[in-house]
């Protein structure tokens, strides 16, 4: 019997996917690193991929674009996505970013919404900064190091790489918003390959439990993928208690949009999350 294979896009290979890849029962995946969330959107619309790993806020933005509007988060793959504002060395705090050129993935959806909320809470109005689309986390790191902007939002391993390159640590999203959620697995509802995605989620759940019980197994999987030990430890620290997207995290995403006056503040958990795939393998017990 031919093994079912699903196609996935992500910015950085997530821990649970690395651990699940060692599982002989796991659904085979064809994984591709993407350069931006817009590339993920286009690939899902075209049917070129079956799932993407991305900011859960993207579902809110994507469902308001011209197109299918049937995107849903089906799992949360990490406890939180550690995000750090990193800037040119002479910039020291959020107030210093007034008038700055900020490198972002997209100006109105994704992690930029948390960045904009941080700036608002620091008293910096949206029209006081410039948002320049520069792609995914690696692309933003490369652009910032090359001097093409003043600051950006980075996650592991690029946040530590940026500081090692002499760039300044400004602030952490998690220090300000403790409920900020991790990345989600996003699909289109009713997709033909969603049976395969559900099987992959079962493998990810087995991986999540393995990581909880044996961190060294997870560490070796990350090291084998070419990441340094510090990145492995950071990933393991974000192993979620459940693959079910947290209600507090989703509520925070909606609250950020509401406070910024962005479209999508009328969403609720059910318009962002479809947990029916998880029901298939947990029987409602998570």
TrEMBL record:
Its main location: periplasm. Residues 41-153 form the SsuA/THI5-like domain. It comes from Paraburkholderia aspalathi. The keyword Signal applies. One of its GO terms (cellular component) is periplasmic space. Keywords: Signal. Residues 1-26 form the signal peptide. It is found in: Periplasm. This is NMT1-like family protein. Belongs to the bacterial solute-binding protein SsuA/TauA family.
């Amino acid at each position: 019997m031919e093994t079912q294979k699903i196609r996935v896009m992500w910015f950085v290979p997530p821990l649970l996917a690395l651990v699940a890849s060692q599982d002989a029962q796991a659904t085979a995946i064809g994984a591709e690193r993407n350069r931006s969330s817009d590339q993920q959107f286009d690939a899902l619309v075209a049917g070129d991929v079956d799932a993407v790993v991305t900011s859960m806020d993207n579902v809110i933005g994507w469902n308001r674009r011209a197109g299918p509007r049937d995107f849903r988060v089906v799992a949360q793959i990490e406890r939180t996505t550690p995000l750090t504002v990193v800037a040119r060395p002479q910039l020291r705090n959020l107030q210093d970013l007034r008038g700055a050129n900020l490198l972002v993935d997209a100006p109105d959806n994704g992690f930029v919404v948390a960045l904009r909320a941080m700036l608002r809470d620091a008293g910096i109005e949206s029209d006081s900064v410039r948002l320049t689309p520069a792609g995914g986390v690696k692309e933003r790191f490369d652009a910032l190091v090359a001097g093409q902007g003043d600051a950006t939002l980075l996650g592991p391993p690029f946040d530590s790489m940026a500081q090692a390159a002499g760039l300044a640590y400004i602030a952490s999203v998690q220090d300000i918003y403790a409920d900020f959620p991790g990345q989600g697995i996003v699909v289109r509802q009713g997709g033909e390959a969603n049976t395969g995605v559900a099987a992959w989620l079962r493998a990810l759940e087995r991986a999540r439990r393995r990581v909880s019980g044996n961190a060294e197994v997870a560490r070796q999987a990350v090291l084998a993928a070419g990441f340094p030990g510090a990145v492995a430890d950071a990933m393991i620290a974000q192993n979620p208690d459940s693959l079910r997207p947290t209600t507090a995290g989703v509520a925070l995403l909606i609250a950020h949009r509401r406070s910024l006056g962005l479209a999508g503040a009328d969403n609720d958990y059910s318009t962002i999350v479809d947990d029916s795939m998880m029901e298939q393998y947990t029987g409602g017990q998570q």
